[in-house]
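Re: the request from the purification team.
They wanted to know what the chain is likely to look like in 3D before they choose a buffer screen. I agreed to run a prediction and write the result into the notebook, where they can find it.
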Amino acid sequence: MKQSRNGKSLKTALLKLILMLLLMSIEWVMTLSFGTMMVLC
């Protein structure tokens, strides 16, 4: 019973981490694309 609860919390933590990483990567891509556009124009 205790183990399953721990596994669930671990899964949610991993999901949150993945979501945070995705958001960060999207932000990086946005800033990089904007920077390249500014340089090209």
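For the purification team: Residues 1-41 form one domain.
Please add any questions underneath this entry.
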